[in-house]
Structure formats: structure tokens, C-alpha cells
Design brief:
Layout (H helix, E strand, L loop, with lengths): L14 H4 L6 H5 L2 E6 L2 E7 L12 H18 L5 E12 L7 E11 L3 E9 L5 E13 L4
Antiparallel strand pairs: 1-2, 2-4, 3-6, 4-5, 5-6
Length: 145
């Protein structure tokens, strides 16, 4: 989140809980949130520390960025008393990235009562698309705390 904003989902569920860094993969990958809205979640991730042995951004890091952004977007739009859980993720890697940061933008393809599907476009610092992902989340009632 930027500038210490505190946002809530449709049911008042704190985005701070969704994006808390302690013990989450997003923190280990260096993912930073730029925009947090149900219809648009934007985040960035460094290439450094997320490379595969050939020096390229690891495809699994792209997948983790995509699922993180899409899942947060789905959770924000899930509705009162609901949570979003990843069901299916597919990624197509278009071009290699060797340095800098990548930016992912998650936008809805479908937002229904029981599922939500998001497209996540990942681009490099020259705004060239490097990966296209599609995430479907199942929307469920939040279990009691």
C-alpha cells in the first residue's frame, strides 16, 4: 500500500490483513502493492532475488506475483463474510526479464457469486508485456475465527 493508506474490502475486512508481510510469500519475493481496489490491483516485484539459474526472472516468481495480485483483488470484491481461495492459475511467459522490476496489473474477467476470474498482465520497466496470467478463485463463506 502506498502512503500508509488503510483500505477495507466490501465487508470492512482490512486490506492490511490481506497484505500483511509477516510469513507471506509476497514479502519474501519483495512484492509491493501500488493500487488496491476490487477492479484493479497493481503490484511490483524486483527481478533481483527472484531469478532462475540462467539469470532470468523465474517463471514461478511471475506465477506467485500473479496469484498474489489476483487473490487480493478477488478477496476485496468477495462480499461481506466471504473469502477468495485460488482454484486455477495459468501463465504464459512472453519475454525474458533479467533486471529491474516487473509490474503486475490484475483486472476482473468475471466476478460472480461463487467464482471470480482475473487477468494479470505483467510488464517490464519498458512497459513490454512479459507474462499474461489468468487466475480463478472460488468465493466461500469466511470460516469463523
Amino acid at each position: 500500500m502506498t502512503d500508509g493508506e488503510s483500505m477495507t474490502s466490501d465487508d470492512g475486512f482490512s486490506v492490511e490483513l490481506l497484505t500483511a508481510s509477516a510469513e507471506q510469500l509476497a514479502d519474501k519475493l519483495g512484492i509491493e502493492y501500488v493500487t488496491l481496489e476490487p477492479d484493479r490491483v497493481v503490484g511490483t516485484m524486483p527481478v533481483a532475488g527472484n531469478r532462475q539459474p540462467y539469470g532470468l526472472l523465474h517463471g514461478g516468481a511471475n506465477a506467485a506475483l500473479a496469484e498474489t495480485l489476483g487473490s487480493v483483488a478477488a478477496a476485496l470484491g468477495a462480499g461481506a463474510g466471504r473469502v477468495a481461495v485460488g482454484l486455477e492459475l495459468s501463465c504464459t511467459h512472453h519475454r525474458a526479464v533479467t533486471e529491474g522490476r516487473v509490474t503486475g496489473v490484475a483486472t476482473p474477467v468475471h466476478r460472480g457469486r461463487s467464482t471470480a476470474t482475473y487477468e494479470i498482465a505483467i510488464t517490464d520497466e519498458q512497459d513490454r508485456r512479459t507474462c499474461t496470467a489468468r487466475l480463478t478463485c472460488v468465493l466461500r463463506d469466511r470460516p469463523p475465527r
